[in-house]
TrEMBL record:
InterPro entries: ArsR-like_HTH, HTH_ArsR_DNA-bd_dom, WH-like_DNA-bd_sf, WH_DNA-bd_sf. It comes from Microbacterium immunditiarum. The keyword Secreted does not apply. Residues 25-113 form the HTH arsR-type domain. Pfam families: HTH_20. Keywords: DNA-binding. Residues 1-22, 171-209 are annotated as: Disordered. Residues 171-181 have a biased composition (Basic and acidic residues). It comes from the Bacteria. One of its GO terms (molecular function) is DNA-binding transcription factor activity. The keyword Lipid metabolism does not apply. This is DNA-binding transcriptional ArsR family regulator. SMART domains: HTH_ARSR.
Amino acid sequence: MTSDEKPQSEPGAERGAHERISDPARIRALAHPLRLALLDYLGDVDEATATECAEVVGESPASCSFHLRILEKYGYIERAERRGREKPWRVRTKDFDLRPDPDVPGSLLAVQAVAELGLESEFLRVREYFSRVEQEEDRWVQASTFTRSAFWATAEELAEFSREVQNLTDRFEGRSADPSKRPPGARHARFLAVVNPDPIASPAPEEPR
């Protein structure tokens, strides 16, 4: 199960490298809608100040500054080079994996909390798109998809499939930070996928004797 207290990053993490995060405190630091929005935005740009973030997420600079410091404390972002009097932020890595570890108590519940929040946020975003879809040009409507599939797989096959899904957007790498890499007419797009087995059925209650 993935969702992609140590104030610093876990050992071996460096800017730009893939990072697996299983520490419950670090994971729970993302269980806040504004922090998720800030991290998403910083992942789309090279760097941004608290004021620039506030203009995008619709919160005050003071509120953004507070939550940016929380993200820094738990190793998700760091200070970029100063721009005169401005102090921008940047992500430490754009490739991290929130994954529970059976040997780390609390990590499963932490991932569960962030996953539920992330799913709710994405549901609202997708619902807003479909509520305004009549405003879209037909070519963009035809280019969009809502896909559901069901299949049988082993745990190993499902894990391999999950990794393939996680890598589907690699072909667009670099376009967020570098506008020159975007083809003419490109729009910011979103991708949401959930890969999971059906829940284990609860045992039927015993008949009273």
